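task queued by scheduler; priority normal; single chain, no ligands, no partner chains; default sampling; output format set to structure tokens
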Amino acid sequence: MALVIPEVQMRATGCCLVAWLLAAAPGAPQAWPQWRGPARDGVVSAAVTPDAWPAAWQRAWAFEIGEGYASPVVVGDRAYTFSRQDPLEVVTALSLTDGTVFWQQLYQAPFEKNPYALKMAKGPYATPLVDGGRLYTVGVSGIVSAWSLDDGRPLWRRSFVELVDSTALFGGTAASPLMVDGLLVVQVGSDVHGGVVLALDSTDGAERWRLEGPMPGYASPIRFDAGGVGHLVVVTQESLAGLDPATGVPRWTIPFLDELLENIVTPVWTGAELIMSGTRAGTHAYRLVEEEGAWSYTEIWTNPEVTFYMSSPVLGDGLLYGLSSKRAGRFVALDTASGEVTWSSEGRAGEHATAVLTAEHLVLLTNEAQLLVVERGGAIYRIDRSYTVADSQTWTLPVLLDDGLLVRDETHLVKLTAE
């Protein structure tokens, strides 16, 4: 299916480059192609981890992209951002070397903010995805687009704006897209119209399957194998649901209701248990059980005192690392076998923090622009390095590069290099 999209505006600087092989192998240098990185788990390749963390960072360049909460993605020598210059949503390809714009696309995306979230930006929230020479974006109002990675040409578009209604409690489409065997999995909808999980053909946007149900959560889907089959896990505001990735047929459902409709964090699969957390529900671990083709679950443990709210935790060393919202924010390491806290900070750590893992460190970026390099695997919370990395708030994941660091603040994408 070839679409002509007349409302798209395009800005280009310089000539187009020859298309390169992208979205390459997970863990390849300079590859951070989707939400939480190559494997969608927040683990950073050794190729882009500093041999030694610098005493300080300096600004190499900054480019004004607009507001939003979508993390930047990186492949090769380019960074790609998704932002808002109201009423437009904006997709930008930038040179990692000097911040030069290779191409930029803008399209109309009117959106009215939820009345309970007036302090927040109007999105977008969903992090773009790079796969097979294409960049995929999911806008706050439910506009799904595919772009040529090389020159920014619009390849196809699907609009689901009729399903997105922010007049009640829903704050806007937030689940980052996931690629599963050539199918682009997206979640759209609202508390007014209900939710829809869609699998779209990545080449032309054609719908391959859909599953209708409750309002979508703000969490992003994941996929893993268990019991010899694939499980596509999506989060609604009522449950965790495990689907057959090829057909969308539900395999199992775990109730997980948040009364204020704030299921936000990405679930974590440990290889044995599925862990989910919420600011009111606490943290829970579930074991999936298959018997004669029927799936069920057993709750293994729960910890009501550890409440990951907007901060999706990362897994390493048999521990779940992240920011719990209780005690005005405290960093924790939670034992995934028992649910017990191995270590925690004192509290009052802040409202939000994103987390990634290198081989030796837990790297945390708070919304107050504090980058903390924390020793991982230890028995206590110990900061090895700390930096202030921006002049305004930082809500998205930092992206480590082989020669520096990318940070998105309230309005700019910034590259930092070691002093």
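post-processing summary
- The first strand starts at residue 9 and ends at 12.
- The radius of gyration is 20 Å.
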